[in-house]
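Possible regression after last week's pipeline update?

I re-ran a chain I had predicted before the update to compare outputs. Posting the input and the new output here so someone can diff against the archived version. Not blocking, just want to make sure nothing changed silently.
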Amino acid sequence: MAVAKTQADWELLARRSRRDRRIKHGLLIAFLTLVTIPVIVPFFWVFVISISARTGGVESDVLWRACAILVPAVFAYGVAHTAFRSVRQRIYAAVILVLLAVVGLAITVGDDLHLYNYRFMVNPNLVEELRGAATAGGQFPWVWVAFVNSLIVAATSMALKVTVATLAGYYLSRFAFRGRSQFLQGLLILEVFHPWMLTIPIFLVIFWIGLLNTLAGPILVLTAIDLPFFIFIMKGFFDAVPWDIEMSAMTDGASRRQAFRMVVLPQVRGGIIAIAVLGFIKGWEEYVFVTALRTGNSYWVMSTYLYYVAEDVMGVDYGVVAAVSVIYIIPSLALYLFCQKFLTQLTLGGVKG
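New output (post-update):
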């Protein structure tokens, strides 16, 4: 009798605990949803404007009707992604929600949807046409020229940042040398000053070394600006890797280089991916230095292309501006989605064995 009563009490406590956990989890999701809505709605507005705005302007009721379909669909996928563990189930949920969203958009705003604002992707002279006589002379390139230049700047600076920060972080973590503490203090001091304060000195240095009006100039500047912070990040990751792991590999016959490449680097993969994503995004979105380090129209990147589209002297075409913004966002968004599994599971250190 007493055993049955004790078991019933435990089952009651277990049900109460599961209920409390579900309530807390639901409240947390609801809170995060409410906080996220003001952040993501503007991005949906940009997308909706890009596929609905016409020369006469933007209709606000179209924005709200479209967002009433898109926002719930995104949050529904977030719930499905959390609830389903199987990749196949998540894919099915995504396909079903996309189909429902397409049908909902077709019903609510189908007559207002079009792709005319994306004509800049096939019309090399669109910017000149929008800006009228003020752009006579073929000053403005095709958007794909700016897109490729942005990829070159972002990818090259990312590769340099990852390589230098990884090697420097490892050296600072593993070796004691004279001036090490002063070097670390110097990196901290560099982080105090905002890089925009150094625009004029940087311009003069780039001019004197002959890299003005080249993509190499902003690539080197962006690399130098971000390196102090990235070196500190990688040093923290290397500090968390036990020395015993590396020493065991060298005891078993591996060289220092082999131990670094095959034992230590896999332990800090999360940090490398993190600084790679941050480095690419900072290079992709850069505007100040890619503009300050050129004179005339020597090169174009997506940030300067978007600026001149938005600064139309003949009247801003908001649909085209929104469409260019959507194309501008896609690489950073795709990179984050591809790497989100690693970014949300960052760990420090390794396992002794």
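Follow-up from reviewer: compared with the archived run. The chain is about 75% helix and 0% strand. Marking as no regression found.
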